[in-house]
Design a protein that fits this description.
By secondary structure, the chain is α/β, with parallel strands linked by helices. The chain folds into two domains: 92 residues, Ribosomal Protein L15, Chain: K, domain 2; 185 residues, CRISPR-associated endonuclease Cas1, C-terminal domain (Four Helix Bundle (Hemerythrin (Met), subunit A)). It is built from nine helices and eight strands. It has a four-stranded mixed β-sheet with strand order 1-5-7-8, with helices on both faces. It has a four-stranded mixed β-sheet with strand order 4-3-2-6, with helices on one face. Helix 4 runs parallel beside helix 7, helix 5 packs across helix 8 and helix 7 packs antiparallel against helix 8. The longest helix has 24 residues. It is flat, with a radius of gyration of 20 Å.
Amino acid sequence: MLLGRLGLEKARIPHADRHGCVFLERGRLEVEDGCLRFVCAGGGALDAGDYQLPHQSVSIILLGPGSSVTHDALRILSAHGCALAAIGQGGVRFYTAPPLLPDSSALARRQVTFWADPKERVAVARQMYTIRFGEEVKARTIEMLRGMEGARLKRLYELTAQRYGVPWKGRRYDRANPNATDIANQAINHAASAVEAAAAIAVASTATIPQIGFVHEDSGQSFILDIADLVRHDVTLPIAFGAAKQALQERDENLERLVRRRAAETFNKDQTVARLINHIKAILAPPLSGDISRPEPASEPKPVTEPSKGSPPDPERREA
């Protein structure tokens, strides 16, 4: 491996030893005396104040609404291999981010290697379904897994609607007119978009490849959609049906705003982005002893049994 100019790459803290993500909003990201600082106006997750940031030991800074960044800040972030992404409040939207330049290509290389090997691809997809449904699945093809998913999702929608007391007549989505359906379906659409943004942040943070999915195929965000689906049972649907219930009770409230607010609260409370990053690392871990079996995934909670205070799937996605 070629060294960087003057060997400066060796001075960087490896991303594996860094703290991961830092969320900032309502302030100015700048440099003072060679140090990165964030002058926050308050009114959001952070109190008003002047914060010095350990940019050498962070992998990515997530800059939310009401923020600005100076050219000097971009320069110092680049020099230390720290990425910067523009996001919606709480991570409910992912607008843009320059490619993260990690110190290792291991995850991306394994992603491509697993995808290119039919047996490994099915093994990774099976692990994803184990994470989602809490039990090992025996299907031997992607098509069989998709069929199993459709049946389970249909039942999951019904059960979640019952828990939240929201009328449910089935999943409906018209890509030409997504608002031409009932409140519950519209809420699922909005919640799916928010969770996909969190998944996009996780994919960017791990420098994996958005286009290389294991279950999804055609979308330019196939891997992002795969990762978002890992929390559909305990993040996406509770957000959607909780917001739908509130919208039915408070008719003057904007549904999309309710979903975004609930999603931001859930992402912060449950550390959703961090969970998704850990899932990516788990499913792209090296095979055990050269076998196609995957390492055991982290256990996932079952769908919630009580309403929490606090998609269509994308047009490219399958309909359940």
